[in-house]
Amino acid sequence: FKNTLYQSHLVSLHMYIQMLLQYQEHLSKLDEQIDALAEEIEEYKIIQSIPGIGGKIAATIISEIGEIERFNHPKKLVAFSGIDPSVHSSGKFTATINRISKRGSSRLRHALYMAALCGIRSSRNKKLREFYDRKREEGKPFKVAMIACTNKLVHWIFILLKRKETFLDLA
Length: 171
Fold this sequence. Notes:
Layout: H1 2-39, H2 42-48, H3 55-65, H4 74-81, E1 89-90, E2 93-94, H5 106-121, H6 126-137, H7 142-163, H8 167-170
Antiparallel strand pairs: 1-2
Helix pairs in contact: 2-3, 3-5, 4-7, 5-6, 5-7, 6-7
């Protein structure tokens, strides 16, 4: 009885492994298709010109932003990404601690945060690293400095996409 139970578990395990391998193969094909489609989009190359932003993050940012013409000011793109501060006030009271609003696209917010983190950690994006260091010297906590960097990154993305220039042209 134990032997047949053991064999049925092995068969089930083998079946699950086969399914996982098929899913991995399917995902890698989709990954290749996404990369091929993204290469044809001008905005993809523009965003990838920013040091620290790779292919997957650039593709996510492009897909979440859509047409940049929808936004007539960088602050509107900041609000759309949900990294603008939420202001809490009532009567004469105004809160001193304000969190980000998180009212926009969570995928875009996550991709932008990861792009800022990669930009700071890699030595390639000197402008963003200097900005981050300046914020930390001002006494800002890590997360506050990171959101400031993410905000700066959104402004750069907005300008680059509007002008259809690469990051090197902005420097």
